[in-house]
Specification:
This protein folds into 4 domains: 92 residues, RNA polymerase sigma factor, region 2, helix turn helix motif (Rna Polymerase Sigma Factor, Chain: A), CATH 1.10.1740.10; 88 residues, Arc Repressor Mutant, subunit A (Orthogonal Bundle); 174 residues, no CATH class; 59 residues, OB fold (Dihydrolipoamide Acetyltransferase, E2P) (Beta Barrel), CATH 2.40.50.140. Helices cover 64% and strands 9% of the residues. The protein contains 16 helices and 7 strands. The longest helix has 41 residues.
């Protein structure tokens, strides 16, 4: 049986009651603050920050936590983890402050610039001799000045792992430089590189470089503009665009083919495959917009208004969605379009111009594209189906208000609240009785988009 704390949290989840949440915080503030204070060595300001973090996390995870019989254990565990993280951050901040002070002290040493003059002509060659994983961490940290958290995100590592990799790379760089006759320490290099290696670009240089690159890439830019128009058409139609993800391959292949180069019969075969797949894409977009375009999407269709078309009764599944077949028209069209697009690209390259080389490579690329399209659509369908089933199951038994009177055996309209948002839906009386405007009713079942209600 739920205790008072769980009831307050459930009121906050279901009713959005801020008063209930404030009362819960008032009850548990002493527990959380005192636990935080013990674990941060009596630092009152840090303990307050930890307590704030815990209650923010409680509000963010309120929905799953509302089902727990009690909250005290979760709050204590969450406080412990938040306090440990806060203490680690405080230690790191102190280390950074020490490093900054050390940098200022070293900069006062007039011999530091002379040491950099020895390193400067060798630094890029030495960095190039490092393994790529170490080189990436070193450049991101000491040449671009990024934080360890940002480096970890880019390299797929935890923050501590990113720190260890960057420090290891710095030590390897010191060893490489020592082999070239430059003796230094890892600390000295770590302070010298950010100060000297990352020079700011002259004002206006970035704009000049971008304009030059865009001017040289004008031909490819035209192809990209055409693709943007096709993409806009696909989005506005709200229809599936199965082969658009690989249409860019064909446009790039045509743009890369030299104007004076004889295309050859293989090129026209690739062009025909690309055109056929792209035609299917455009037709599915236009006809899907005009006729509803279910295609591979099955029977379920999630709408922006929060309702899910499907069939459910008594809280059953709302999305009788059959799934996405591996050999559906979508995946087949993706393969054909990808084969044509990649084929034109490989045909435009001297090393892969032979059909015995370009065709297998194009087939492999097309298989990868088709597999990616299949995986993406399957993932979307599974998520949509699960979400629809959950929404319908939550509606059964929920209270609603009649906003358009329901006549005998007729259809009216009800309003209900779900997830903090208000929705309306067509409804019938379960018993065929008349229900007046403003009457409170209870939802008994949902069939497709038709709600059935009864007076409480």
């Amino acid at each position: 049986m739920m205790n008072d704390d769980a009831i307050l949290l459930r009121r906050y989840v279901v009713e959005g009651s801020e008063c209930a949440f404030a009362e819960l915080v008032n009850r548990k503030a002493g527990l959380v603050y005192s636990a935080a204070l013990r674990q941060v060595d009596g630092d009152t300001l840090l303990a307050q920050d930890v307590a704030q973090t815990v209650f923010i996390d409680l509000a963010r995870k309120a929905r799953p936590l509302a089902e727990r019989p009690e909250l005290t254990s979760w709050l204590h565990t969450s406080t412990r983890f938040a306090a440990l993280k806060a203490v680690r951050e405080r230690c790191r901040r102190q280390i950074r402050e020490w490093e900054a002070q050390a940098m200022q002290d070293i900069e006062r040493d007039s011999g530091r610039d002379a040491e950099w003059e020895q390193v400067r002509p060798l630094i890029d060659e030495a960095v190039g001799e490092l393994p790529e994983t170490d080189r990436s961490a070193l450049l991101l940290r000491y040449f671009e000045g990024q934080s360890f958290a940002a480096i970890g995100t880019k390299l797929g590592l935890a923050e501590n792992s990113a720190r260890m990799r960057a420090e290891r790379a710095l030590d390897k760089l010191r060893v490489v430089l020592a082999g070239k006759g430059v003796a230094s320490t890892a600390i000295a290099l770590g302070l010298a590189l950010p100060a000297h290696a990352a020079a700011a670009a002259p004002a206006g240089l970035a704009t000049k470089l971008a304009l030059g690159a865009l001017a040289q890439g004008a031909l490819l830019g035209c192809g990209a503009g055409a693709l943007a128009k096709v993409s806009k058409l696909s989005v506005l139609s709200k229809a599936p665009t199965p082969a658009f993800a690989v249409a860019s391959a064909g446009v790039l292949g045509m743009a890369a083919l030299p104007a004076a180069e004889p295309a050859g019969s293989a090129f026209y075969v690739y062009l025909g495959c690309f055109g056929l797949g792209l035609l299917f894409t455009l037709l599915s977009a236009v006809l899907g917009h005009a006729f509803g375009g279910h295609g591979d999407l099955g029977h379920g269709d999630a709408h922006w208004d929060g309702h899910a078309h499907g069939h459910a009764e008594g809280g059953g599944g709302a999305g009788d969605m059959p799934g996405f077949a591996p050999l559906s028209p979508t995946t087949i069209a993706s393969f054909i379009t990808g084969f044509g697009g990649f084929g034109m690209i490989f045909h435009s390259m001297e090393a892969t111009r032979s059909v015995w080389i370009s065709a297998p490579l194009a087939a492999l690329g097309a298989l990868a594209v088709a597999a990616g399209v299949f995986w993406l659509f399957s993932l979307i369908f599974r998520r949509t189906q699960g979400s629809s089933e959950g929404r319908v199951a939550d509606l059964v038994g929920q209270a609603a208000t009649v906003i358009t009177p329901i006549a005998t055996d007729g259809v009216g309209e009800i309003a209900y609240v779900q997830g903090g948002s208000r929705y309306s839906a067509p409804a019938r009386s379960e018993a065929g009785a008349v229900l007046a405007n403003g009457a409170t009713v209870r939802i008994t079942r949902v069939i497709g988009t038709q709600f059935y209600v009864t007076a409480p």
